Predict the structure.
Amino acid sequence: MIGPADALVFFGATGDLAYKKIFPSLHAMVKRGHLDAPVIGVARSAWTLEQLAARMKESLETHGGLDPGAFAKLCGLLRYVDGDYNDPATFRAIRTALGAA
């Protein structure tokens, strides 16, 4: 049997797919108690974590509704790594963002 994941890393965190599908799915997972691990969004948009959280909030308000408690918890789990998947430094930054996971 496979246990729960230590973290979730997804690329394209500032893109359209994340906006329309991934953020609402993560939000639903938190609401249902199925996500309690760090969520690391990776993109090469030179954003801050605050900008990513604002985009996530806009996404949830547009695509399915915002549960304030679930959103707050998801924001606490969210990390952002700015980088290109072709750059080895990006993967070192992801390793750092993973912490003990």
Notes: Residues 81 and 94 are 6 Å apart (CA to CA). Strands lie at 8-11, 39-43, 78-82. The longest helix spans residues 16-31. The chain has a mean pLDDT of 95.
